[in-house]
Design a protein that fits this description.
Blueprint (H helix, E strand, L loop, with lengths): L2 E2 L2 H4 L4 E6 L19 H15 L4 E4 L8 E4 L6 E2 L10 E4 L4 E7 L3 E6 L6 E6 L1 H5 L2 H13 L7 E4 L12 H4 L9 E3 L5 E3 L1 H11 L7 E3 L24 E7 L3
Parallel strand pairs: 3-5, 3-7, 4-6, 10-13
Antiparallel strand pairs: 1-2, 2-14, 6-9, 7-14, 8-9, 8-10, 11-12
Bound molecules: zinc ion.
The site of zinc ion (ZN) has 6 residues, from loops.
Length: about 250
């Protein structure tokens, strides 16, 4: 099983993280989503394999992502392994200061962002499609981290994960118009339509929230260009598969 990782988070001894990759050797190409209509038993089989990466003490939080801007704080570890919170918890960002709690985000083009503060041990995981990005979800998550856990944004490290790149994300003018004020976020495509760079949008929002640019790493991978490694809703014209970005604090 292949996992993608971030250098900037990999340097932190108190943090364990991974981004899953597509695999032809696993059920459903190692999709991890329970809400997209695939056989739940096979998805659970994949989730159990992923659980081995984080160890027996870990418990997983997986919210139903609704393209909103709700930030949910996980304040207690309810049980080990995978919890069935998918149905009742609607949120697009998760934060916690608990160790052994794995925050997870499912994507297939949208931007996954993982956050970690080495000082307080607080972590966050964000799902930012164009709607969440237009609502400034990553910025709101940084604010919640500092309000709730006393995180200084200047200490935060952020990984902007594999997502559809500005090379492939053609959008309509109504979407592009939401981001034109952000330098370099929208470019003209070869077909004359605007191309949106959502990773850049989130980079700028993180900077605005006080995270130093030197503490932000951007994945070079475009999900639409690299369909053999990741799922791409756009490039596959709608797909059931989702890959997962996960982060856990080992000690708090
Ligand atoms: Zn691309």
């Amino acid at each position: 099983m292949e996992y993608e990782g971030s250098r900037i988070l990999g340097e932190l001894p108190g943090v364990k993280h991974c981004i899953t990759e597509r695999s032809t050797e696993e059920p459903l190409a190692f999709s991890l989503a329970l809400h997209t209509g695939e056989d739940p038993e096979r998805v659970r089989e994949n989730r159990r394999k992923l659980a081995d990466f984080f160890g027996p003490e870990a418990s997983f939080i997986s919210a139903l992502q609704v393209h909103g801007d709700r930030v949910y704080a996980v304040e207690r570890q309810r049980s080990l392994g995978w919890k069935s919170v998918d149905e009742d918890l609607k949120a697009d960002a998760l934060i916690t200061c608990l160790s052994n709690v794995v925050l997870t985000i499912l994507t297939a083009d949208c931007v996954p962002i993982l956050l970690a503060d080495p000082l307080t041990g607080a972590i966050g995981a964000v799902h930012a499609g164009w709607q969440g990005s237009a609502l400034g979800i990553v910025k709101k998550t940084v604010i919640r981290l500092s309000e709730r856990y006393g995180v200084d944004p200047g200490n935060l490290r952020a990984f902007i994960g594999p997502a559809i790149g500005g090379c492939c994300y053609e959008v309509g003018e109504e979407v592009a118009g939401r981001f034109r004020h952000l330098k370099g976020a929208v470019k003209a495509g070869s077909r004359g339509r605007p191309m949106l760079d959502l990773k850049r949008v989130n980079l700028l929002q993180l900077s605005e929230a006080g995270v130093p640019e030197s503490s932000i790493e951007i994945s070079p991978h475009c999900t639409a260009c690299e369909r053999e490694r990741f799922f791409s809703y756009r490039a596959e014209e709608g797909c059931h598969g989702r890959f997962m970005s996960c982060i856990m604090s080992v000690e708090c």
